[in-house]
Specification:
Layout: H1 7-25, H2 56-68, E1 72-82, E2 89-101, E3 107-110, H3 112-115, E4 120-125, E5 128-138, E6 143-147, E7 171-176, E8 184-198, E9 204-211, E10 223-225, E11 231-238, E12 249-253, H4 254-267, E13 272-274, E14 277-279, H5 282-287, E15 293-298, H6 303-306, E16 313-314, E17 320-321, E18 325-329, E19 332-333, H7 337-344, E20 352-359, E21 362-369, E22 371-373
Antiparallel strand pairs: 1-2, 1-4, 2-3, 3-6, 4-5, 5-6, 7-8, 7-10, 8-9, 9-12, 10-11, 11-12, 13-22, 14-15, 15-18, 16-17, 18-19, 18-20, 20-21
């Protein structure tokens, strides 16, 4: 039996405790206390509280992840570096992103900016690495298509959905590799539709999906899925003052992705319609008190030249005259180069368009038969 301390021992113990308390208040390292009974050798182990079945919503989410995650790829971008000692060139990992299996023929879709300026890429599926070949890119849509040689059982294409009937508020899921953490699932909703963001080329991507599902560096190029596990977009960008998730992420819509990926697989590139012109900068046009898409240069033999449109020219005295300013296409207003390109987005070579331009302050009407642009 333990005796209670004598009054002298109690005073000594109280003094020790007082010193210890003062040291802790001063920021000393926390150590086990002698001033109170902390240990209980007879303490029982905590029992596990059983739970029932997962809720229906949880079960569907778990199943979606199990079915979809084997098709989500880890993309490693490679860069060539030379050793300062031997001068030998070596490919080294330079960055990571996400992609997903598009077809059982080995096509993998990701963002263009994930593999931009890379000397090579490695696609990882289910812990297996495969060297990738670049099939083609759509820089204006931030889409790239790679191809790998992998066993058929590794190539499980994700179902493809449509972005045309999305509704704000419906659930969405993102699977990707944020900060290199592979197979990460985040959830959210469609926050808005019909957004516009700029690709690396400066061109606008239309119909973009906004979501609050967490998207971070490394998620780029991964699938945005609906509750049926269908691809409804490709995650591409975030808005954040810090560069990390802040609740606003964007995805290229599935209908746009399907169009450009099909063209890349068929032709190695996207077939782009156009006038065959170079447009002046919007700032230059506005500085002249004008609105529209001003033609700076007309290509020889181009669709614009055949339609009689003009770019910058020298008059008989050697002075420059401004080019035609396109203000309408098919009756729809054109206030900027963005408007011009948006009105061509859903067109194809051979389409005939009614165009209205200003030339020296006077309206000029023309019919342009769109040409296929090179590259």
């Amino acid at each position: 039996m333990v005796r209670p301390p004598t009054s002298k021992a109690a005073l000594i113990l109280a003094a020790v405790c007082s010193v210890a308390a003062g040291a802790f208040a001063a920021g000393a390292v926390l150590t086990p206390s002698l001033c109170a009974p902390l240990l209980n050798p007879q303490a029982p182990a905590r029992a596990i509280t059983p739970r029932g079945d997962l809720g229906a919503d949880e079960r569907s989410m778990v199943e979606l992840f199990r079915a979809s995650s084997p098709s989500v790829a880890f993309i490693t971008r490679l860069a060539v570096r030379r050793s300062p000692w031997s001068l030998n060139a070596t490919e080294i990992p330079e960055g990571t992103g996400t992609g997903f299996v598009w077809s059982d023929q080995g096509y993998v879709v990701t963002n263009y900016h994930v593999i931009q300026d890379a000397s090579g890429a490695v696609v990882t599926l289910e812990q297996e690495n495969y060297e990738a070949e670049l099939v083609g890119v759509a820089k204006d849509k931030d889409i790239a298509v790679l191809k790998i040689q992998a066993p058929p059982e590794k190539l499980k294409p994700l179902p493809l959905g449509s972005s045309s009937d999305l509704q704000v508020g419906q659930k969405v899921f993102v699977i990707g590799n944020p900060f290199g953490l592979d197979k990460t699932l985040t959830t959210g909703v469609v926050s808005a539709i019909g957004r516009e963001i700029r690709a690396v080329t400066g061109r606008l991507i239309q119909g973009v999906i906004q979501t609050d599902a967490a998207i971070n560096p490394g998620n780029s190029g991964g699938p945005l899925l609906d509750s049926a596990g269908r691809v409804i977009g490709v995650t591409t960008a975030i808005v954040s003052p810090s560069g990390a998730y802040a609740g606003v992420g964007f995805a290229v819509p599935a209908d746009t992705v399907a169009n450009v990926v099909t063209q890349i697989i068929r032709h190695g590139r996207v077939i782009r319609p156009g006038f065959g012109v170079v447009l002046a900068e919007d700032g230059f046009v506005r500085s002249r008190g004008l609105k529209g898409a001003m033609i700076q240069e007309v290509g020889e033999g181009s669709a614009a030249e055949r339609a009689g449109l003009r770019g910058f020219m020298r008059d008989s005295r050697g002075r420059w005259t401004l080019g035609d300013v396109i203000v309408e296409i098919e009756g729809r207003p054109v206030d900027s180069t963005d408007d011009f390109y948006k009105l061509l987005d859903d067109r194809k070579p051979g389409d005939r368009l009614r165009v209205t331009a200003l030339r020296g302050g006077k309206r000029v009407d023309a019919t342009v038969t769109l040409q296929e642009l090179p590259g």
